[in-house]
Amino acid sequence: MTYYVFIPVTEFAVVRGIAILLVIAILLHENAIFCCYFIYHLFHFGFAAVPSLYLQFYTRVWIPDPDEVWRSAEIIKDYKEGDKSLQLKLEDETLYEYPIDPPGSELPFLRNPDILVGQNDLTGLSYLHEPAVLHNLKVRFLESNHIYTYCGIVLVAINPFEQLPIYGQDVIYAYSGQNMGDMDPHIFAVAEEAYRQMARSKNQSIIVSGESGAGKTVSAKYAMRFFATVGGSASETNIEAKVLASSPIMEAFGNAKTTRNDNSSRFGKYIQIGFDKRYHIIGANMRTYLLEKSRVVFQAEDERNYHIFYQLCASSSLPEFKDLGLTCAEDFFYTSQGGDMSIDGVDDADDFEKTRHAFTLLGKELLCLKPAQQKFLSISEDEHLSSFCSLLGVEHSQMQHWLCHRKLVTTAETYVKSMSLHQVVNARNALAKLIYAQLFNWIVQHVNQALHTTVKQHSFIGVLDIYGFETFEVNSFEQFCINYANEKLQQQFNSHVFKLEQEEYMKEEIPWTLIDFYDNQPCIDLIEAKLGILDLLDEECKVKRTSPLFTHVFVSANHFQKPRMSNTSFIVLHFADKVEYQSEGFLEKNRDTVYEEQINILKASQVKGAAADLFQEDKDAVPATPGAKRTPRINVRSAKPAFKAANKEHRKTVGHQFRNSLQLLMETLNATSPHYVRCIKPNDEKIPFKFDPKRAVQQLRACGVLETIRISAAGFPSRWSYPDFFNRYSVLMNKRDLSKSDTKQICQTLLKDLIKDPDKFQFGRTKIFFRAGQVAYLEKLRADKFRAATIMIQKTVRGWLQRARYQRLRRATLALQRHTRGHLARRWVLGSLRGGSWGAKGGNTSTDQCGPVLRLLEAQLQDQRREHEEEMEALKNQVDLMQEELEKQQQAFLQTLQLSPEVQVEFGLQQEITRLTNENLVRSCAEKTENLKPQAVSATVPCLPAYILYMCIRHADYINDDQKVHSLLTSTINGVKKVLKKHQDDFEMTSFWLANTCRLLHCLKQYSGEECFMTQNTAKQNEHCLKNFDLTEYRQVLGHLSIQIYQQLINIAEGILQPMIVSAVLENESIQGLSIVKLVGYRKYSSNAGDSSYSLDEMIRQLNTFHSIMCDQGLDPEIIQQVFKQLFYMINAIALNNLLLRKDVCSWSTGMQLRFNISQLEEWLHGKNLQQSGAAQTLEPLIQAAQLLQLKKKTSEDAEAICSLCTSLTTQQIVKILNLYTPVNEFEERVTVAFIRNIQVNLKERNDPPQLLLDFKHMFPVLFPFNPSAITMDSIHLPASLNLDFLNKV
């Protein structure tokens, strides 16, 4: 059964919210039992809890599992120290004996209580360990469809393999200007944090990493889209569109389909977006790293070459490609080795049009690349070689010769030697790879030229999209370089996390102890130090070896191992995992040899803009974007050196080049403030919202997320501000402590009493720091306190119920006794009467014996009747008096409503206006009217300037002077525009001129002489009509001007209200005692600690100010109604959008608080007589969201009720709120996945729009209904205080 309980507001002023909830629960169910969880202390990360924590029945733990990695179980038998096993029950009710050998060690990890599961920050969990992290991510991903989760300073992004409606412009605007911890985790939140920190301090970098298919490219793309939107260029260069246009170009030439990802980036890139002093985008620069050149000549099964080849083949029918000899991709060897030429859901021809459009945005000169791209497809046959030479303009015989021969130079002679077939194929492939690599670098160079600016750069934000740690069955030179890069990035990440922890402790002035964390410097030294793997690899390349011998040199190194069964493999112990590399091909890939004779032939190409340009020395490189003065050492240089013909430069190894470019990248990152995004691939089948725990935990270990958890747990991971701690745990304090005024001292006293070990917490200047598990212990104490209070309330209420029941029984008993005794008395009297009559008849008694009794009863009845009649008469008179008073009040109220604003102020007219006498007065009138201030005419007739202007127009009409009319109206309109431009942020001035412009428009209609506008005119007013001119065109101009002023008025009002809405409507505690408890684990990362917080009363006062200004200035009531309809729509949209993006406000208590706050706004509308404005209707989605948070969410009947109630919310919004719904107290329950699926089934017939958020910038069309004035022109008086002496009375 569903119960609906309505609690008067006044009760909350007396009774604390939690006590009321407990009483409600008790009254609804006498046997209500409140679940209290028991959370115990975990001492250190990486170690199981001490045996004493396992003494309780039904303690939940995590045990290893070969399929699920970790599995939940309950202890069903007390553990005693020395026991060799734990008796457990799995979730499927299976009994399991968990061995402990030796006894007392390797106890399983404790599980977090359900109320903490699903937190948006992993470091906020009470127990910080691998199973807790994995489970929390799984719950958020599968049950709530949340793909983003914070882990300290890291944003963990899980690829949903599905397009989600969470990246639109409305979402960007929702996150813009918000603190990082205020909203649900999102890539836009990280981008906004970087943007704000750049504006406040220094240059920023966003480091996006993850394995192929994890979503790195998409995350980086959305981050750049955010910057392009919020930092749009102030000039007409449209540079932000060019920055975004670089993405499809780089994807076409640098991305390919792999077995793990349909759009895998086969290179790393660092895009540096430059900003000016006003933080508008002025330009960008791109650096690339380690392009996978081998893909040009070889693709594994089910993989493709780079997208551009298939785009060209799909567009082969275009007229401009007729000379290229293009056919379908299956006809070319270099594009058909993978077998599958297509990608599901991808149209290569359509993508090519997008690529061409991007080239157009960046500069049409880039389109000349098209004829040069086909050359890579195949040169294995004479026919293909002829096409190759023809397209590139090189000599056929020379190319044919040097593809099959090589030159050997000795000290004495030069030899030309034929090559074997295998060598010829390798030479051809090497040439194709080099040409593509040079073309790729040439494209990057020209993209940078298109994004280059001469404007001085003030600061920048870099976005690094780079490959994550990789390990395959066969790992070659590419994986070695990739994992080397990840070692460097992980070292930078560890040091940054460690540095932030140290800075936080020092800022809060708490003792700092060194935290031991994994240092991967030995592994990095093994690779890059002198005589490391890269150095020895380069040395062996010089001596022309075919296989490396360095695998035997590092046998004694700690991070180096040799497999027992292989002489060509070696193992490196990376931070993420140990990886076995196959050394075959290492030397060839490191040399990347291309014969100089082939390059010289390409240099001699006769085709302009083709191969010859690619192999010339780069003399016109793009200069570095000028940096800020404070960062002069961060100069953008090409990550790859320009191609030169000199042998030394040309023969620099790939490993050497990569090490240099990586060093340059690390210098840049170390000079910026980094932000980290770790992308996780949840499954290898690319199935939407499927979570493979094995794959996920492998990546969590590899990307450093668990290292972040370990570093956090080693120190003080839980941090509470003193006010938040006081609000949460004041229930544990006694009255004496609560009476103190110093909140900080109260918290310190409480903690010293509750936690005896001083090492478990530290008091900072503004926060309290807790070791892992201490918050869970406090939550247990709080739950115990609530349980004790619950029992006390239950005992008291049950006693009260029993006493009330006893009182009812007692009253009923007394009533029965009274009626029974009365009945017996009446029987006795009747019996006596009958006995007296019989006795008289027999002559034994007298009939006078009962006379006194009868007379007494009759007198009592008459008295009671008289008293009743008097009471009825008095009540009737009272009702008549009240009815008469009510009628008088209603009549007075109706008269007040019917009184127009113009008539109300008609009695304030003082002096009379006269006419304009000459042409100069037109300019004087316009200037004087322009300089009028709202305060100067506040005590006069509303819209007095409009009446003055009309009287001037009427005079010009009277003397039939067309030039004066034109001059006066033109000057007036221009003057108003000038004033509004000058006061574009002044609500009062804008409202003043909106009222006057509308009134002038009404006057021109009312006195136009048109019958449709004269129906309400008096005879006197008809005498003031225009006689000679038709001003219809000017009325249209004034109408357009009114719309512009109205829009400016709305923009000003929205700018004032917008910062107030979230805190006033969603966070303000208007109901005293119903505390909106901060959820455990929802730490804020507020960049501006001093951000203002507004109450609902402050926002209502602001609304009052708007209303009084517009009313005082005589703005039409219909326009005032439209203004507040627009403002209330914005309040609804911003509040609802914020709620849809915040898990911490989606709770039952917030729903009740929100509904009360909305009722306050509705009451304000009623008090201002704005019920008919439609403003209240705009709040309906927010009202339904509040009701949805409060409704029961368990059964099918509940689902039907929600679907029938929430008609103003879309299906996506309903599902989003249900997914976000989070219990903040122990007696609340989570919304199950089955219930949400039930909702979706019930709502599948709806045709809702796809967007999740409301467009808070939407503006309703404005109407200006005709509103004639009751004022006559000859009754208007002009106050002397206005200094309009040039106006004379006619």
TrEMBL record:
PROSITE patterns referenced in this protein's UniProt entry, alphabetically: DILUTE, IQ, MYOSIN_MOTOR, SH3_LIKE
Protein name per Swiss-Prot or TrEMBL: Myosin VB
Residues of the Myosin N-terminal SH3-like domain: 56-108
GO MF, any single term: microfilament motor activity
Highest taxon of source: Eukaryota
Entry-linked SUPFAM superfamilies: P-loop containing nucleoside triphosphate hydrolases
InterPro entries referenced in this protein's UniProt entry, alphabetically: Dilute_dom, IQ_motif_EF-hand-BS, Kinesin_motor_dom_sf, Myosin_head_motor_dom-like, MYSc_Myo5, P-loop_NTPase, SH3_Myosin
Keywords: Actin-binding, ATP-binding, Coiled coil, Membrane, Motor protein, Myosin, Nucleotide-binding, Repeat, Transmembrane, Transmembrane helix
Segments passing through the bilayer: 6-28, 35-55
Biological processes, Gene Ontology terms: actin filament organization
Ranges where the Dilute domain occurs: 970-1245
One GO cellular component term: membrane
Keyword Metal-binding (UniProt): no
Regions annotated as coiled coil: 854-892
Limits of the Myosin motor domain: 117-783
Family named by the database record: Belongs to the TRAFAC class myosin-kinesin ATPase superfamily. Myosin family.
Region ranges (Actin-binding): 662-684
